[in-house]
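User: I've been going back and forth on whether these two constructs are worth ordering. Before I decide, could you fold them both?

Assistant: Sure. I'll take them in the order you sent them. The first construct and its structure tokens:
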Amino acid sequence: MKDYKFFIPIIIIGMFFLTGAISAQVEAGVVISPHIIDEKAKARDVLEFTITLVNNTDKKVSIYPVVNDISETDGQQAFIDPHLLDKTESLARWIEFQRSLIELMPSEEKQVPLKINIDLNAKPGKRYAVITLPQGNNRPLAEASMEMVNYPQIMINIAVEEEIIEKAQIIYFRTDKNIYFYLPVSFSFTVANSGNRGIIPAGGIYVYNRRGQEVDRLDINATRETVAAGAEKNFSVVWADGSGFGKFKARLEAEYGDKSRRDLIDTIYFWILPVKLLIVYGGGLMLALIIITAVVFRRTYYGQHPRSNSARLEGSGVVDLRSKKN
């Protein structure tokens, strides 16, 4: 047993030098370019590259690519099933690269496409990943040898920039009734935010009378409420201090956005017919109709009964000269 223990250090030292020799041979045997990809991108972007692999040996090489995330804090590779990774944060899940067997014949050069699809909901920040090209007769052997051999690698650094999207629209703008017999008038409108940042609509509702004159302005969001990204919010405004009658126009003029100001505009119409005025106008109209009816009836009746008219005159002591003459 003592004799065997004597050879253990020698075997370990021999394996160390053998591993170093294999690593040097592997690195010199397969050459890749580029080694580093360092880019900036935004959500939804697609980055495309071409990776060149060259086999400088006189033997066939079998490569089984492995793609892993690298921790930003400790620089360690994360050996996790890609499907279990968060798609909004994992660079490994965004990478499209041939992960099946890549064979290179002696002195062969091969072009392998590399595509990076930045996720639609990618969170801003830096992402790191590495593509390692281990060699072996099969994938388990190739991956097992990665701890002992420094295989060629492609280091990928992607800085996901924050993209602010400010986009909103008015779903509807209306009053709760078309005709009002008394105030107040209730306005309501809904804003839909299809951007990725909350917005605060600001502006007013301008009220115009039937002559086109502005009679009032109403603040639409005095409390500065926020419409969350991807959400809808309803706003209500009450016009209680107005006056007048007839057809009115209400014009909603609002704006939103911090990056660039954008408009929200819509117009509606409504009627105000106050009860008191209706009574006054209705009474006057009724009286006018009675008078007109009486006059028309009088003229029509006596036009059709002239004798009755003569008798009325005689009874009153008035002589009808036309009858005397005949």
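The second construct, handled the same way:
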Amino acid sequence: MAIVACPQCGSKQLRVSHRRGFSQRMLSIAGIFPFRCRQCDHRFTAPIWSLSGIRYARCPKCYRMELSTWSEQYYHPPWLTVAKLRLGATPYRCEYCRCNFASFRACKERFSWRHRRKQSQAGTGAKDAAGE
């Protein structure tokens, strides 16, 4: 998914909006979904599918690809998810909306809190060294 941003304010704090009418339902089949900005409340449509990302898993709620995994030991999934897991699917968790799901597709962007922390610490250390 190309990172979708609000065309009005440029924010990336988005949620998937409800589809209105037959035409938006047909557009969603083609990968063009309605979004709503959480900051300015602007509603717009944007494409989420790209040919390079179609083979990777994405969250069924927010369509993001930043995923981690979960364990059945701590979460009791619905029966359909359990059936997918028994057939060999991988358990994924969206780090943005915290949705647990199973998919047969590979993960493109593995989310890691350690990696995210190292990047933020490296960025602040570079600013301190520069005298900012």
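Notes on the second construct follow. The two ends are 34 Å apart (CA to CA). The chain has three helices and seven strands.
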